[in-house]
């Protein structure tokens, strides 16, 4: 009863307030105009006062109508004012509230059923609230691992100067809202203090790359374990392997691949395994086996690797899918302009012209100057430089004008026996030994260089010829066939013919130059048909290249050798035998 009485009192008070305000305004205007309705000394002021009066009356009617609609009593309501109470103001049939939805125009909102929480006695003053037309479902909660993976992709910005590692961990937790812990047992075993000081400027790169650059100098790393991001030592991370699955159904054509999906998946796994990073260190972890299995129309890649190994696989698959996306027809709808990646920005900056004039300038000052002028992230691998006894304040004297940043860096760093590489969204100044161990996988589109047609007009692919040309002319002793770390493989993915190369940054630059020169020589006529070339051996003998999906001719060295006749045990030819003629 008290609730409904308060409703009526509120309506009466609101109406009386508006009426008093309206009459007060009207009286003031009348006094200022000397009773314009009686004497009418200024006819021009009369329409203005009428407009104001009409406006106030409209406001009064709207307030009264809205209040009565909101607090309209039902049939069981007992009027607290008794029989002398004025009847409630009825809502005109033609009145429409522009703020209501079409389905709400028919009348006031129906009352809730008894027992609802909203029908209880209010504890405070009356409030105005309207239930939304539709309920918005909250997104499902993300798992801690998913939140960490998303945070690792977000950009970060840290300006650290002799900041303890524990404080850096707290900054990351606060800025990215993820749980970060320090593996204190691993730190104690390695003799590293948890308050070790860090000096590093990170800007415009992802949290993943920032952690890699920051922790590398301390011989530390990170991994995701037990739903938290753990800062640990490299020795512990090398022993931490976990299983991961990857959906590669879009990379295997189940209908067109020769040998079926099983053979296609095997070739994909072998190609990926050939590009996995390998280290010559004795304690380096060995890459785990990679298997590809098809279940119905879904092909799954499964492998057990370290964190670095899984990151390599994810990037490898992303690069392959990027090449396939470039082959899509131009009629596809255009997407929004995408900001180039940090790696693409660095590659573009390396081609830009620069001029340097350094006289007795330290290495770190020169790097800071180039970083500011070229607008890219340039870092110094202090750990690698300390291992070879090169200080970051080593003086440089060099004057260069009108050359590319790539050439300027080569000339500057050559005198210090240093080099550079692109890693973790930054251009990293390091030693040649470290750069050779860090292999970068790049996928090259070579469809115009490997397709040939025989005399019958049938097309065939010659990946082997192109790979032999590259491995024999570009640092032949650094490829896996000669015991080196580099690898090269040809593969076709749904019509895209690519060459997958895993090698150092310098070798990739030489490969780009080699392919450019090769195209300038072989492609004299645009849109010309594939060149005619017969397979090197009889077309009756074919094998499937494990690094591609096209049948390649079997070379004489790969042909099955004929069985030798058994040696004559009684003859005097010994193990050589007597069947030489």
Q: Work out the helicity level.
A: 25-40%
Q: What coarse outline follows from CA principal-axis ratios?
A: extended
Q: What proportion of the residues form beta strands (DSSP E)?
A: 15-25%
- What is the gyration radius calculated from CA atoms? 39 Å
**Oligomerization category of the chains in this entry:** single chain
What's the number of domains?
A: 4
Q: Mean pLDDT across all residues, rounded? A: 74
Class by helix and strand content? alpha+beta
Distinct helical segment count: 17
Summarize the structure.
This protein is an alpha+beta fold and 581 residues long.
Question: What report would you give on this structure?
Answer:
The protein is an alpha+beta fold and 581 residues long. It folds into 4 domains: 2-119, no CATH class; 144-238, Phage tail protein beta-alpha-beta fold; 343-424, Phage tail protein beta-alpha-beta fold; 441-558, no CATH class. It has helices at residues 2-32, 45-70, 144-153, 165-176, 184-190, 207-216, 234-238, 260-274, 307-326, 342-351, 363-374, 382-387, 405-414, 432-437, 447-450, 463-473, 505-522; strands at 155-164, 180-182, 197-206, 220-225, 228-233, 242-247, 290-295, 298-305, 353-362, 378-380, 395-404, 419-423, 426-430, 440-445, 451-453, 459-461, 487-493, 496-503, 542-544, 551-553. The strands form 8 sheets. A 3-stranded mixed sheet has the order 2-5-4. It is extended and about 105 Å long. The termini are far apart. The model is unreliable at 26-41, 71-84, 98-107, 111-122, 124-132, 330-336 and 538-581 (pLDDT under 50).
């Amino acid at each position: 009863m008290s609730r409904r009485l308060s409703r009526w009192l509120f309506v009466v008070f609101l109406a009386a307030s508006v009426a008093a305000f309206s009459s007060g305004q009207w009286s003031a205007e009348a006094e200022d105009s000397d009773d314009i309705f009686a004497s009418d000394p200024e006819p021009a002021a009369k329409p203005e006062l009428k407009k104001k009066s009409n406006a106030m009356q409209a406001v009064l009617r709207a307030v009264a109508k809205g209040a009565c609609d909101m607090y309209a009593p039902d049939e069981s309501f007992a009027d607290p004012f008794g029989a002398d109470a004025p009847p409630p103001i009825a809502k005109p049939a033609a009145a429409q509230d522009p703020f209501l939805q079409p389905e709400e125009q028919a009348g006031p909102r129906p009352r809730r059923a008894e027992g609802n929480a909203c029908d209880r006695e209010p504890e405070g003053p009356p409030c105005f609230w309207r239930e939304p037309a539709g309920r918005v479902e909250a997104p499902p909660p993300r798992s801690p691992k998913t939140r960490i993976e998303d945070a690792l992709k977000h950009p970060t910005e840290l300006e650290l100067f002799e900041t303890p590692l524990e404080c850096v961990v707290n900054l990351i937790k606060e800025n990215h809202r993820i749980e970060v812990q320090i593996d204190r047992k691993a730190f104690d075993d390695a003799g590293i203090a948890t308050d070790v000081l860090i000096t590093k400027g990170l800007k415009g790169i992802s949290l993943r790359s920032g952690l890699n650059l920051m922790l590398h100098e301390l011989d530390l790393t990170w991994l995701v374990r037990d739903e938290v991001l753990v800062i640990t030592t490299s020795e512990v991370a090398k022993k931490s392997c976990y299983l991961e699955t990857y959906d590669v159904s879009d990379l295997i054509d189940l209908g067109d691949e020769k040998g079926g999906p099983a053979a296609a998946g095997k070739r994909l796994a072998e190609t990926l395994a050939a590009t996995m990073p390998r280290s010559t260190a004795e304690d380096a972890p060995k890459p785990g086996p990679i298997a590809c299995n098809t279940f119905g129309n879904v092909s799954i890649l499964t492998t057990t690797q370290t964190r670095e190994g899984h990151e390599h696989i994810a990037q490898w698959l992303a690069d392959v899918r990027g090449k396939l996306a470039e082959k899509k027809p131009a009629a596809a709808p255009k997407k929004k302009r995408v900001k180039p990646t940090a790696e693409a920005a660095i590659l573009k900056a390396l081609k830009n012209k620069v001029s340097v004039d350094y006289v007795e300038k330290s290495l770190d000052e020169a790097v800071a100057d180039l970083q500011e002028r070229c607008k890219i992230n340039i870092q110094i691998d202090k750990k690698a430089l300390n291992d070879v006894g090169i200080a970051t304040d080593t003086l440089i004297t060099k004057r260069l004008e009108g050359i590319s940043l790539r050439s300027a860096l080569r000339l500057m760093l050559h005198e210090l026996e240093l080099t550079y590489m692109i890693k973790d969204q930054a251009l990293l100044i390091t030693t040649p030994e470290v750069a050779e161990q860090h292999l970068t996988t790049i996928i090259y589109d070579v469809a115009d260089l490997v397709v040939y047609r025989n005399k019958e007009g049938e097309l065939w692919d010659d990946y082997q010829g192109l790979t032999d040309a590259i491995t024999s002319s570009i640092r032949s002793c650094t490829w896996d066939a000669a015991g080196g770390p580099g690898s090269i493989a040809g593969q076709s993915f749904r019509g895209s013919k690519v060459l997958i190369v895993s090698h150092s940054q310098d070798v990739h630059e030489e490969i780009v130059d080699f392919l450019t020169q090769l195209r300038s020589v072989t492609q004299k006529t645009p849109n010309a048909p594939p060149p005619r070339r017969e397979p090197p051996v009889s077309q009756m003998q074919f094998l499937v290249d494990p690094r591609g999906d096209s049948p390649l001719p079997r070379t004489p060295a790969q042909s099955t050798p004929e069985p030798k006749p058994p040696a004559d045990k009684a003859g005097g030819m010994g193990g050589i035998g007597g069947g030489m003629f």
